[in-house]
């Protein structure tokens, strides 16, 4: 069993920020958690990490990194795009006795297969692998990033080539609420469906914006996602996303309006077929649709696309 790591005496985070002249860049939507009590609480939401492997995204000056190391992980790889943090992270790496590796790169280019041992991979239907994706994400990239990771869940690529890798991530509180929003919740939107059809999603708790440096104008939501053994909609990600995106394009109108833009103008017959096959009331608002409703809509659209070559590539724009 891996012993819980005790890091040697290190400068405080505030000392590191002063030492290296670091600051959060507003145009990058960076906000740092500086209180180790808060970062310890955050890391605990990932569950047992002792002896596990972790990829931390956007570590910044390394506050969450310290908490992950102290949880007794076997291997921690931090991926940081901002090269200003190189020295502060390298100092942590040297203090970690080889546990921490620093990669200065964009997480979207990061090759997980080159940094984690193949032996930790599990079959998709088995238990989750001892690999976790953890990150305090900049607000401006959090939504596009989670959508790309959800596509990777669907395709079982990247971190999910190892199996059902768990994710512990931060978002603006409003985005966190959207990710878990059930049917009939006004926050229900495209991210709600895309996350919930592929993952078990838990909004763990909120961190006050005042706890961050600099203080954002909004609070932060902590979200834990675990890929499902079987997706609730067993169809290609891009097809599901096209249907969901179209339906929510007019989220305050009837769902019929969103379904209409899946088809070329003048194909009211296909729109009518969608609602006839699914037995969904076309006057339902998008946020009132259940997961089963979206499943029915996706399958109905899939069947029509199978019948009409090229339709899947139609873009109303």
Give an overview of the whole structure.
- The model has no long low-confidence stretch (mean pLDDT 91).
- The chain has helices at 13-19, 36-44, 63-70, 86-95, 139-155, 173-180, 190-196, 237-248, 255-260, 268-278, 291-307, and strands spanning 32-33, 53-57, 75-79, 100-103, 131-135, 166-172, 199-207, 212-213, 220-227.
- It contains 11 helices and 9 strands.
- It is an alpha/beta fold and 317 residues long.
- Helix 2 packs across helix 3.
Based on the model shown, name its key terms.
seven-stranded mixed sheet; alpha/beta; single chain; 11 helices; two-stranded antiparallel ribbon; 35% helix; 317 residues; elongated
Briefly say what this structure is:
The protein has 317 residues and is an alpha/beta fold. It is 35% helix and 15% strand.
> N- to C-terminal separation?
56 Å
Give, in spatial order, the strands making up the sheet with the most strands: 4-3-2-5-6-9-7
Total helix count? 11
Helix-strand pattern: HEHEHEHEEHEHHEEEHHHH
Question: How would the global form be characterised?
Answer: elongated
Largest sheet: 7 strands, mixed
């Amino acid at each position: 069993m891996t012993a819980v790591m005790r890091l040697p005496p290190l400068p405080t985070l505030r000392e590191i920020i002063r030492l290296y002249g670091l600051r959060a860049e507003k145009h990058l939507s960076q906000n740092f958690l500086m209180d180790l009590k808060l970062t310890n609480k955050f890391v605990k939401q990932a569950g047992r990490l002792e002896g596990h492997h972790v990829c931390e995204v956007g570590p910044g000056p390394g506050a969450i990194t310290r908490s992950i190391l102290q949880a007794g992980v076997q291997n921690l790889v931090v991926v940081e795009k901002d090269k200003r943090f190189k020295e502060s992270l390298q100092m942590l790496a040297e203090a970690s006795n080889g546990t921490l590796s620093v990669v200065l790169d964009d997480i979207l280019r990061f090759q997980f297969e080159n940094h984690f041992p193949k032996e930790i991979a599990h079959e998709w239907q088995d238990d989750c692998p001892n690999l976790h994706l953890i990150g305090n994400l900049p607000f401006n990239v959090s939504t596009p990033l989670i959508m790309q990771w959800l596509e990777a869940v669907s395709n079982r690529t990247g971190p999910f080539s190892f199996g059902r890798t768990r994710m512990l991530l931060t978002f603006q509180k409003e985005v966190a609420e959207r990710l878990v929003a059930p049917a009939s919740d006004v926050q229900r939107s495209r991210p709600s469906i895309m996350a919930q059809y592929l993952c078990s999603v838990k909004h763990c708790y909120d961190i006050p914006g005042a706890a961050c440096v600099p203080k954002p104008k909004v609070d932060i939501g902590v979200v834990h996602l675990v890929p499902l053994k079987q997706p609730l909609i067993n169809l290609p990600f891009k097809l599901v996303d096209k249907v969901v995106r179209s339906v929510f394009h007019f989220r305050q109108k009837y769902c019929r309006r969103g379904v209409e833009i899946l088809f070329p103008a003048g194909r009211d017959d296909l729109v009518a077929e969608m609602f006839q096959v699914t037995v969904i009331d076309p006057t339902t608002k998008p946020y009132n649709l259940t997961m089963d409703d979206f499943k029915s809509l996706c399958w109905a659209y899939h069947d029509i696309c199978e019948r009409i070559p090229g339709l899947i590539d139609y873009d109303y724009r």
